[in-house]
């Protein structure tokens, strides 16, 4: 599963930002054809993003394109963008499994022979999308994650959007649970005040504690803060190694349960420890095999 | 006299794309008289260093798209090759000359 701690939005009709998107160290860059582009410039952004995909070096960042919904410019986006080999399409305003199936069909038609299959992430940003999160998450084939878009969602609810995020607690939990149940990733909504570093830290921490695996970002300055929250700490890695050692020792002695500092270590604890070690390895930290 | 088969690839109206912001380029294409060829009027902050390369890129795109008889005005603000290609393709599309494949 790809590391998607941070996914940085880049406006699709801004050449300066598109050409520099790879230097900030985000796990993914999202070249945005939707909300960041005025309706009369959709054609220009589509050409620009297509050319950027073909020529700009985004380094280790995964290349994601947010297309428009299928009832506006989505089909045209897919037709031009998919042959330029993005890694993922972020599909906005998904409200049903049929929405993802529709995009899947168009992507399959647009792919070139031998091309690495383009994956999909569903952006849930309406009450209906949240209500059907599990049905959407189960769409087979290309879907690798659910993402929450809280601004449109709260606008639709008629709720005020706050920094504390009480109003999106249920939506966050539903997205995380649906994604986990379907075995895919869940990604948190962006924190929209790029100047409030403390607020971002708290918001990212809340998301992590609830179970999100990554967070959308709207400004390069947000990347380090989010990584700081989502990266495992030295103490956590140490704990995870101790857990894995304890269970291996127990298994060697014919038991499926171990004890560490007086606390029981069973399968879910081991799974969490292994996930932490896997993440640490991906980040280049030397940990036990 | 224009050849009927070529009509689809000819520019029929003025098309413009891009901005004057840094790293961008504004391109305007105007239909020329039949047989007049492609004429490029280029202003660029890096004209001395990259003027020839910019012209080459523009002519490549025009040739790929099967367009001819064009007057192209280019105001460059240090755009990369990919941006120049994208803005010209957009301007040509807006001018009604989608080109042979209609793709990048």
TrEMBL record, chain A:
InterPro entries: Aldolase/citrate-lyase_domain (IPR005000), Citrate_lyase_beta/mcl1/mcl2 (IPR011206), Pyrv/PenolPyrv_kinase-like_dom (IPR015813), Pyrv_kinase-like_dom_sf (IPR040442)
Residues reported in the UniProt entry to bind Mg(2+): 125, 152
Alphabetized GO MF terms: lyase activity; magnesium ion binding
Pfam family for this entry, one: HpcH_HpaI
Residues noted as binding substrate in the record, renumbered to the chain: 66, 125
Assigned keywords, A-Z: Lyase, Magnesium, Metal-binding
Name of the molecule in the record: Citrate lyase subunit beta / citryl-CoA lyase
Originating organism: Pelosinus propionicus DSM 13327
Sequence ranges assigned to domain HpcH/HpaI aldolase/citrate lyase in this UniProt record: 5-220
Biological-process GO terms, alphabetical: oxaloacetate metabolic process
Cofactor(s) annotated in UniProt: Mg(2+)
TrEMBL record, chain B:
Coiled coil: none
Lipoprotein in keyword set: no
Upper classification of the organism: Bacteria, Bacillati, Bacillota, Negativicutes, Selenomonadales
Single Gene Ontology MF annotation: lyase activity
Keywords on record: Cytoplasm, Lyase, Phosphoprotein
Native organism: Pelosinus propionicus DSM 13327
Protein's cellular compartments: Cytoplasm
Family annotation (InterPro entries): CitD, Mal_deCO2ase/Cit_lyase_ACP
Entry protein name: Citrate lyase subunit gamma (Acyl carrier protein)
Record flagged with keyword Ribonucleoprotein: no
GO cellular component, one term: cytoplasm
């Amino acid at each position: 599963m790809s590391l998607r701690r941070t996914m940085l939005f880049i406006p699709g009709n801004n050449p300066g930002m598109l050409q520099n998107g790879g230097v900030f160290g985000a796990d993914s860059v999202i070249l945005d054809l939707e909300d960041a582009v005025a309706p009369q410039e959709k054609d220009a952004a589509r050409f620009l993003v297509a050319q950027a995909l073909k020529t700009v070096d985004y380094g280790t960042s995964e290349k994601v394109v947010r297309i428009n919904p299928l009832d506006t410019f989505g089909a045209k986006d897919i037709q031009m963008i998919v042959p330029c080999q993005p890694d993922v399409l972020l599909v906005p305003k998904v409200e049903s499994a049929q929405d993802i199936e529709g995009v899947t069909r168009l992507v399959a038609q647009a792919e070139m022979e031998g091309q690495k299959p383009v994956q999909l992430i569903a952006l849930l940003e309406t009450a209906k999308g949240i209500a059907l999160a599990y049905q959407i998450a189960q769409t087979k084939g290309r879907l690798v994650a659910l993402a929450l878009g809280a601004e449109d969602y709260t606008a639709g609810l008629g709720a005020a959007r706050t920094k504390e995020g009480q109003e999106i607690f249920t939506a966050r939990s539903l997205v995380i649970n649906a994604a986990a149940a379907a075995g895919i990733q869940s990604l948190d909504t962006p924190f929209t005040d790029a100047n409030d570093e403390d607020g971002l830290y708290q918001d990212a921490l809340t998301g992590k504690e609830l179970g999100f695996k990554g967070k959308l970002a709207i400004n390069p300055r947000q990347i380090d803060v989010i990584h700081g929250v989502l990266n495992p700490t030295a103490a956590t890695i140490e704990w995870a190694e101790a857990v894995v050692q304890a269970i291996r020792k127990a298994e060697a002695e014919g038991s499926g349960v171990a004890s560490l500092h007086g606390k029981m270590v069973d399968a879910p604890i081991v799974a969490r420890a292994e996930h932490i070690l896997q993440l640490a390895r991906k980040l280049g930290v030397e940990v036990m095999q | 006299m224009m050849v009927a088969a070529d009509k689809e690839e000819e520019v029929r109206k003025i098309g413009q794309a891009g901005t004057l912001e840094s790293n961008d380029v504004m391109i305007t294409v105007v239909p020329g008289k039949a047989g007049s060829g492609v004429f490029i009027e280029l202003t660029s902050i890096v004209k001395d260093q990259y003027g020839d390369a910019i012209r080459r890129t523009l002519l490549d795109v025009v040739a790929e798209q099967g367009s001819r008889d064009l007057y192209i005005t280019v105001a460059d603000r240090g755009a990369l090759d990919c941006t120049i290609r994208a803005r010209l393709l957009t301007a040509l599309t807006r001018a009604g000359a989608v080109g042979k494949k209609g793709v990048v």
